[in-house]
Structures are given as structure tokens and as C-alpha cells.
Amino acid sequence: MRHEAISSTNWKFCRTTIIAIGRRLAFFGILWLILSRAEALLLGVFVVTAASWLSLRILPASPPIRLLALLAMGPGFLGRSLVGGIDVARRAFDPRLPLDPDWIEMTVDLPDGGKVALEFISLAAVALVAIEEKSETLAAALRYMLTALLGSLLYLLGTVLLYSAHGVLDIGLIAGRTPVQTDLLAVALMTAGIAAKMALFAFHAWLPPAHSGAPAPASAMLSALVLKTAFVILIRLWFEVVPDLASTAILILLGSIGAAAILHGGVMALRQDRLKLVIAYSTVAQIGYLLLIFPLAGGESAAQPWVAGAWTGTVFHALSHGLTKAAMFLCAGLWIASLGHDRLEGLREQARATPMAVFAFGLAAITLMGLPPSGGFIAKYLLLTSALASGQWPWALVLLGGGLLTAAYLYRPPRRAFYADGRGPTIRAPVTAGRASRARRGGDHARHRIERTF
Amino acid sequence: MNSCKLATLPQRRRVWNERSPAGSEPDDIAHSRDAHVFVPDDNHRLRNALNLGGAVLKLGLVGFMFFEVAGGVVYKFRLDFVPGLFLLLRVDALALLFLSLSAALWFLTTIYAIAYFGAKPEQSGFFGFFSLCVAATTGIALSGTLISFFIFFELLTLSTWPLVVHKRNANSLAAGRAYLSYAMPASAVLLVAVVWLESTVGPVEFAVPADLGALDDTSLQVIYVLFIVGLGVKAALIPLHGWLPQAMAAPAPVSALLHAVAVVKAGAFGIMRIVFDVFGLDRLDALGVATPLAMLAAATIIWGSIRALQQEDIKKRLAYSTVSQVSYIVLGIALGGPYAVIGGLAHLVHQGLMKITLFFCAGIFDERAGITRIDALDGIGMRMPWTAACFTVGAMGMIGLPPTAGFVTKIYLGVGALQSGAAWALGVLVVSTILNAAYFLPLIYRIWFLEVPSDARPVEGPPTLIGPAIVTAAASIAAGVIAAAAYSPLGWATLIAQQEYLP
Predict the structure, then answer these.
(1) pTM for this prediction
(2) Which domain holds residue B306?
């Protein structure tokens, strides 16, 4: 009786295993045939066998998937994903940043394999946000991650639209395609995705806390380089992939976004009282200048003589902005290291204590204001020339207004560094001490909200 | 001592390296030695040697070029940044007028400043930016294109700010803030004017008359107004003069250089370039914008004098006097007649000599006797005779009494006004002279004819402090006495006007 039971169990197990092996072999075999177009069959046998064996090791044979139940899950899954996505987007753009990262205990009604995947995601996220163990840094990094994810999703969505319409993803091939109605939507989605990543105006909320919270060398790289890569993709998108879609209205819209970034970033930088925040908002503003290339060099003006100046000016701007931002964040890091904070009013007497840093900051400020003799001046001069030569004087006004705003907010740090009343520089505890405890008190509330999100 | 020497050696080498690639002389002078920002603060000897060495070298080069240019030689240096944007340095007669003034007065001011600061701290920063400021002025003088001019003009703005805030107190920082809040918008306006013009007619070289026919009259008028506003802040034309009296918070050598050579003169010189070399006197007449500029200058002359009369602080009174006096230059240029132009050009040098004398003396009064207010000057002539004598010479020049340089200017301007058919300008000169006398004669009276109120006996200080003032005072008399000589400021101005700007 007992033997029979065992042998019956064994038999049952064997049967399940054999069926599972057969299924895996069939599945991988068909996949191989499709992917390799029925070539290299001998290699296929090895690969399919190996893949089946590996898949059985990772995901052992389990009860068969109930197709009906899977289908029934579909609508609910889609609905919840939508709600979750909207909530993530809302939190990413809310200026108050209503979240406070923490560990969440979650029981999941899934077999073993599912749990592995979930844990993998949370591990990656924690690795990203926990570079510096400060609450505000965590929040900033999380917001950065959310925005970047949102950007990637939007970009991917646009790419999928393009692919479904034309069946290719090659830049040269898409450029030569026959236009389809959904193209504009696709490119708009991709632009929005890039905008989120390069902290363009209206998508810029993540940048100041993230860049000012990161350690100084990291901020230098983030501000100087990372944003520019997204800009390169934006340029390629509009000038190489779909130059025919760049109508005057769209070019002016892009330019206006740039102008809004210049003005908003400048005004916000003027209102900050911490050096790193001033520099970070200045990045928001300076990114805006890059967008002026669209009205100045895009569309019908592409063949005009002033376009060369606009391109050279933009490249000069990107380059000199990268260098100055690196210099500024490194100076800020130096002052944080020596003073323990980066409050503007505490920088007094630094012209005496750290003359080289003040001098370097001053040179960087001159470049950013677009004053000669500097790369920033050459950039502004060329952009201004091409704006006036093309008769688009509103952009010239934006360039000048932006320059004056830059001068106004970058005047404040050196002004304080030069001030000396004989009391010596202010040295205090790091600026984060007070905020960490406040964030801890709000922890429970935030945790509840995150749970609701997921 | 040894370690100190070792530490300063690299800087010395850096300075020499900066000078050694002598492509051509103008370049050499313009990119002059600003490396002494990094000379250790307590190494007075090295710093003074660098400063004086640079100043003497520059004086020698300028003197050499002076005679070469008089013989018809033209020096040129060109540096391309990107296509369509290049730096051009070019020595012509007008450039040399400004250049020799700045070279001579820089040398004297350096001697004065070394004595003035003595062993005070932070001199390296001061002399570094001081030299940078003079280098920028030199660049302005040598600029051969509009954009080169703009580059050096802004370099001057930036290098002057640390000098204005040198004392690092709330007062001087407020002055620095006022200075920049006038200068930055002005630079934006100036840039628009430059770029607007160049985006239509291409890069403007002063030696090559630009073809302005491509622009309509209204655009040209607007561009001209933008130029005058952009340059008028530095030239302290009303209502853009507000920063200048505030900038008196700076130390005396800075005020001296600011008022005599660097900032206000750069503005006036820029207006000369715009009027003579960009637009040309004929076109300005055709556009009908020369007379409004002359009227603005006249209004500035009167207003500056009236405000000077109301000041109780010596340096403030001198500052408003500068507002008034610099506009003589602008008035002469804007009137456009031969004598008026010559008078305006010569006054660029005359005013520099006289005003720097006054500021040197004001600095000595403050530093040696603690006198900053006019009512404290009583009887100072008996105690500090040399300083008081120099001050008196400067003040007499400002009033325009013979035989000083100021007299020559006023005669030429007056004759020029009649030549140009602008008799009202003669009236302005008369009123202004009366006002000048009204605000300077009481000072002279107090200095020489009132009793000493206390028995304090201040010493006049080392000869290096009073020496520069004596030299400039003597020069301002000499410029009046030998005005007819070929190499006097007036003679040189006549040469410029005859060669280049008058029919």
C-alpha cells in the first residue's frame, strides 16, 4: 500500500517532469526556429537543450498556467498600473515631494519565482538612493529615479509608435519614411521623455534637490555632462530623424520652453540661500539656452548664413557651461568641506581665506554671465548675432535678460565672499542635521501613502 | 628668507613667461602682467618690483611707439577666435593719445599707491586687479574693432569691481553693487548695439569706414542711442552717473585712476570711437543726433557742477566735478567743429592730469591728516604746503584759469562752439566756469587763508607720496604753457583731428 503510494507519487512526478521537459524543449525549439530562421540546426539542438535544462533549474515544473485566470487578471492589472503610473507622475512633479522613502513589508501571493523578481527591483532602487545616508538625499534620488523612469517610459512609448508605423528604428531609414499621422505624437512623446531626463522647464523639479544633495564631484559630473547627453539625443531627433515635422510653431514652442527655463531658473536661483541650490537652479536656466538652437537653426532657416553661428554658439555654450558648472560645484564642495555648510551668508571672508577658490568661482561666473573674455561670451555673441541676423529679436531679448539674471544671482556668492567684518568665516554643523530629524517624524505618514500607491 | 624666495620663484617665472612671447608690441602691453594677484601678500619687494618694472617697461614701449606713429608707422595684431569674431589691436594716433595718458598716469599712480598702502594687508589682490584694470584700459585704447573694444570694455568693468570693494566693508560693497547694477545693464545695451550693427554690416573695423547704407535711418538712430547709453554709464552722463559718487568708497589711488584714466575715460574714449570711426561726423549730422548729444553733455556739465556745490565731502565734490568735466570731452566731440574736436580730444589728457592731481592730494589729506570733509581743510596750507599747492594748481585748472591746461581746453571749446554755430554752448561754458569757481575757490580760501584750528602738525609723508602729485600738477601747467608745441596734448590732438577726422 505504502509502496504503491510512493511509486504512484514517483510516477506522477516523473510524468509531470517529462511533460515539463517536453514543453520546454518544444517552446525553446520553436523559438530557435523562428529566431534563427531554421538555420544552424545542430547548434540549435545544443542551445535548446541547455536552455531547457537551465529553465528547469531556475523555474521548476509547476502546475499548469490557467489561461482563463490570466485573462481575468488583465483588466485589473492594467487599471492598477494606470493608477500607479498616474500617482508616480503626480509625486514626481509635486513641488512638495510628498514621499519619504522607507522599507516596506509586503506579503505577495505569488510562487517563489515571483518574489525573486520583486526583491531584485527593490534592491536596485535601494542601491540607487542610498549613496549618501541622508533622508533628503534619499528623497531627491527617488524623485530623480521616478522622473527618469517616466522619461524612459515616454521615450519608449514614442519609439514603439514609430516602430509600429514604419517597422524600422534606424535613424537614416526613418528620416526617409513616408510620414504618418501618429509620427507627431510619437516624436512629442519622445521629446517629453528626453525633457524629463534633461530637466527641461516644467520637468526640472527633480534637478535642484538631486544635484545639490549629491556629493560635490558627483554634482559636477551630473550638471556638466549627464544633461548634455539627453540634449544630443533631442538634437538628433529633431534635426536628423524627423526634420520635416519641425514646423515653425513647434520650433517656437521649443524655443519658448527654453526661454521659460532661462527666466524661471534665473528667478529661482536668485531666491536661494544655499550655494549649491543657486548653482543647481542656474543649471535649469542654462539648459534653456541650448533649446534656442531650434528656432535659430531649425526649419526653413536651415540653409541661411546665420545658422553656422547658432550651431557654433550652442556648442560653445554647452562646452563652457559644462566646464563652469564643474568649477562651481567643486568650489562649493571645497567650501562645504572647510565650513561644513554652503549657506550664502556664511561665505563671508572667503576671499581672504580661500582666494583661489573665490577667483575660480569668479571666472566661472564671468563665463556663465556671458561676459568677455570667455567661452560663454563667444557663445552668447554668436547666438545673439544669429538671432538678430535672422530678425528673431525676441530671442535676443531672452539672451540678454538671461544674462542679466545670471549676473544678478551669481553676484551674490562673490559679494558675500568679499565681505569682511572682522568676525571671521562662519563655521557650522552640516546643513542636513536639522532636516533629517524632521523627515523622520513625518515618516509614518509617508509610509502609509507609499503603501497605498503600490 | 630662503624659503620665501623659493616660494615666489615660480610666480616670477610665470610673469616672465607671460611677457616673453612677444608677437608684437601692442599685444604685449595689452596682455600685461596680472599675475601678481598670486604673489604672497608679505612679499612687498617682489610685488613692487613687478609693478614698477611693468609700468616702466610699458612707459618705454609707449614712448617708442609715440615717435614711430608720429612718423607714420601702424602697428597691428590680430587674433581669430571663431569665424567672424576676432581680436584686433591697432595703434593709431587717437589710440596713442589715450595710451600714453594711461601709461604715464599708471606709472605715477603705482608709485603713489605703494607709498599710500605702506604695509597694509591684501596688497597683492589690489595691485593684481589694479594692473588688470590698466591692461584693460590699454586694450580699450588699442582696440581696432568694435568687438575688441567691447571685450576690453567689459574686462575693465570686471577688474574694477574688486578695486571698488577693496575695503571690504558694507559701504564699499554697496558701492560695488551700485557700480555693477549700472554697468551690467549698460553692457547688455552696448552688446545689443554692437551685434545689431555687425549682424547687418559685418565686423566693424575702426580703420575701415563701415558701410552703414545697409541700415535705414531709424535703425541707425536707435543703434546710436544704444551706443550712447551703453557707453554713457562709464562716461557718467546724466542720468547714468549715479554710481560714480558712490564709488568714492574705494581707496584714493583707485579713485584717482578711475576718474583720470580708467573708467570714465574709457566711456569718453568709446564715444569718440563711435562718433569718429563708426558713424563719422557727417553721418551724425545727417541723422540729426549730434546736437542732442551735445545738449546731454551740456546738461551733465551744469548738473554735475550744481551737485558738486552741494557736497561737503572732498572726494564726493571731486566726483561730481568729474561728472561735469568728462562731459566737456563729449561736448567737444558732439559739437563737431574743428576747434571743438581738438579741445575735446585734448581735454581727455588735460582732465586726466588735473583730476589725478586733485585725487592724489585728497588721498594725502585723508591719509596723513585724516581730513575728508571740506570744513576740516582750514589752514592746511601752512602745515602741508606741497600738497596744498598741488591741490590749488589742480583746482585752478578745473576752473580754467591761465596758464593751466584747463584754460586751453575752455578756449578751444568756446571758439569751437562759435565755429559750429552753437552759441548756447558758449553760455554753458561760462555758467560752468562760474560754478567751477564757486565750488573750488572756497576750498582754496580755506586752505591758505583761514587760521589753523588745532595745534596738530601732520607730516606730509614720504616723497613717493607727494612726488606723483607734484609731477602731475607740473604737467598740467606745462600742458597749458607749451600747448603750441608739437608733442603737447593739444599739439597731438590737433594732429589727430587734422589727419583723420576733419575735412
Answers:
(1) 0.75
(2) 289-503
